[in-house]
Design goal:
single chain, 420 residues, alpha+beta, 6-stranded mixed beta sheet
Amino acid sequence: MLRKIIIFFILSSILFSSFSTHAFELDQSNATVEGYYLYDMNHNILMANENADILISPSSTAKIMSACIILESGIDLKQEITVTKNMLNGVSGRNMLLKPGDVLSGEDLLYAVLCGGYNDATHVLAIATYKSIYKFTEKMNEKAVELRMTNTHYLNPTGIDAEEMVTTINDVALLAKYMSKNETFVSICSTKYYKLSDNSVCDFKTISNRSSLLSEYKGLANFSTGSGDNGDSAVLFYENEDLSLISIVMNAKSKNSNNNTNYSEVYSKKLFSHAYNNYSYKTVKTKNEIITSLPVKYSISSENINVYLQNDLKIFTSESLDIEKELSFSIYIKNGELCAPLNNDDIVGTITVFADGILLGSAPLIIKENIERNTFLYFMEIFKQFILSRVLLISMIAFLFMIVIYFIRKKRKFRKRKHK
């Protein structure tokens, strides 16, 4: 008799080389890039990856964490914030030239931080949220620990280079994946132009998104685009019907010192093209092919039955994937075994497809015939299980114990009568 098991049917054990992160390299003939990363969250695929674990300056990506702290602080973004001299102390780099006495809403300032990448707006909002840059930065580092960004340490909320302020592309990716689930954050980062509120007192009236790619890609959110001493950087989130991409390019430098092109965006486009041109859905098994044949308990007619897919099994994968050599499959059967009665189209289990240990997809398994139960075999099995069950064994022990007690008591009564 079959006992309850999970049936694993390995069709291939060859490693899944098409998911190698070395399969893609950026053309660096016009510029150099320190590192890049491309990940599809919809399908759990790392499509491209280079130097993602080396220590680098966070640069403008620090503003992603700053926005995270602000949004999770509970601060009312509708409240008006008056800029003070203290709020502007130590501000450098890209600014919107805020002055003491300027009045903006928290929402105005957050758009200035994320769309415009303005450092003075970041300072003002950080102090309005947690009273000091030091306290705000503490919160940033606490959040980094929570997100397991183990190689990240912040010293300011803007990303202005400072000694011992470091991160890695892998850590930035963890943060980007986390913030991609925050609808307010994504909505702000997707905005091309933002008009400051009517009550604002500021020389600025409209904030333009720093990324030029929003006009080229519908569904794109610019989490961070910036330029610094180490080069250009861009963290982008792109969604369409099939893809949900996190793209990171760090420290892209032009070989032409007079070239004003932002090369982090140039290489971001190359990463997106890589995803479009090299990944698609492939059918790895059809609903008409027999997946496996399994024994059936209590069947009145068939000892074995064929199992099929309910629908074609498709996975999103690299065009270079060799389906025959590079995939492995496992089959799970409900309750570990098939037992009659069974009906046509009954879902009896699941097939799962893997590549190099990475789950790529799964689909339900069905049968395509009716299987009646042999009632005699069924009740014989129940009887056998009862005979071998602990309940019967315990009952028999208890019964024997009661008989022993009965005879002991009866013997004692007999002795008492005899003494009388």
